[in-house]
Design the sequence.
């Protein structure tokens, strides 16, 4: 007895054995290509990736990583196409089926290019470095997102044309409804324009420390709608671009020097000669300090306070880094304390002196005698 006759003996009456065989073959082909995909990803792709990392640049590596998953799905699409040659219910050359496969190929190519245009791939950063950093860092994520939007729009347009959809009619329809769309998306358009203003004027860049009436922190990202700022308490604040573009922005990272400004209060027992010596020595100490900017150093007896004689100190550190600035300020305060000790001058503290007239003194004594 042949295999066909043996199988037919156990099949219900009316079941087409050839049809079942073709279904089984088509499923087997699809499963086989799924296995091929797993083997390719696990062995062949890893070998290609290892070889790509030996090249002078990482461009080829980035391409491989970007197209890793789309390429894996490409095996399934190829297996699906070959399996349809045996599948009895759908013809391999069916027009709708071929349109579907071509659309899937377009999606996979767009997927790979979408991954490749990500800011994290470093492609734009590499291009920027070769151009001697002609592109500001804040432009890179903005350009990346613009490229992604264009890729998606082109992909949708091609897929629409593949299914004989009139894309020109869609564009015309959008033109007729443009006014209503603009009114509905007023805030979105405002944020987009605000983002363009920020990118073109460059008041800050990625990684810089800024201060606005809304937030203070380090810029992490900017997109079409908003800018993300990480505060010093590690909270992530998202500020709409339209708001940020209309606010005064202080960029602390672009300071050329950092200010120190305070008053040193001496007590009223300090003599004129002591004040002059203290002022002179503090000024000389600041002018010879290698971390103090020499252009603007002001040390002067400023004014008479309620309980102190105030000396103004106004100068700048060369560094703008906060931790280094605080360290230098600490050193300066220690030096000033040493000068005051050597000159025998004490720092004033809030106090009041009460003068009692002789008549009041006699009155207090009389009241005390009644006790």
Sequence:
């Amino acid at each position: 007895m042949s295999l066909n006759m043996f199988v037919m003996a156990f099949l219900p009456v009316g079941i087409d054995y050839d049809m079942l065989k073709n279904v089984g073959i088509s499923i087997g082909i699809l499963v086989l290509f799924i296995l091929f995909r797993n083997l390719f990803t696990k062995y062949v792709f890893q070998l290609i990736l290892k070889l790509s990392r030996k090249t002078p640049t990482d461009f080829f590596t980035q391409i491989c990583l970007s197209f890793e998953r789309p390429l894996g799905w490409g095996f399934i699409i190829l297996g699906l196409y070959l399996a349809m040659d045996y599948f009895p219910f759908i013809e391999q050359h069916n027009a709708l089926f071929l349109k579907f496969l071509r659309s899937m190929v377009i999606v996979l190519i767009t997927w790979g290019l979408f991954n490749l245009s990500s800011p994290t791939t470093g492609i734009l950063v590499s291009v920027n470095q070769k151009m001697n950093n002609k592109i500001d860092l804040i432009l890179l994520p903005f350009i990346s997102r613009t490229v992604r939007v264009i890729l998606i729009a082109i992909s949708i347009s091609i897929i629409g044309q593949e299914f004989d959809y009139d894309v020109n009619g869609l564009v015309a329809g959008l033109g007729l409804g443009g006014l209503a769309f603009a009114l509905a998306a007023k805030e979105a358009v405002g944020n987009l324009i605000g983002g363009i203003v920020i990118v073109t004027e460059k008041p800050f860049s990625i990684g810089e420390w800024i201060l606005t009436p809304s937030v203070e922190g380090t810029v992490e990202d900017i997109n079409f709608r908003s800018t993300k700022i990480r505060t010093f308490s590690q909270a992530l604040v998202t500020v709409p671009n339209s708001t940020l573009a209309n606010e005064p922005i202080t960029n602390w990272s672009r300071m050329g020097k950092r200010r120190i400004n305070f008053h040193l209060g001496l007590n009223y027992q300090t003599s004129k000669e002591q004040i002059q010596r203290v002022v002179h020595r503090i000024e000389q100490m600041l002018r010879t300090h290698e971390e103090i900017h020499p252009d603007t150093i002001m040390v002067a007896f400023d004014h008479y306070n309620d309980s102190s004689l105030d000396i103004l100190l106004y100068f700048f550190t060369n560094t703008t880094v906060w931790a280094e600035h605080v360290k230098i300020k600490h050193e300066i305060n220690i030096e000033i304390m040493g000068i005051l000790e050597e000159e025998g001058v004490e720092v004033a503290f809030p106090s009041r002196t009460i003068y009692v007239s002789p008549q009041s003194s006699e009155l207090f004594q009389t009241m005390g005698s009644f006790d």
Remarks:
- The mean pLDDT is 79.
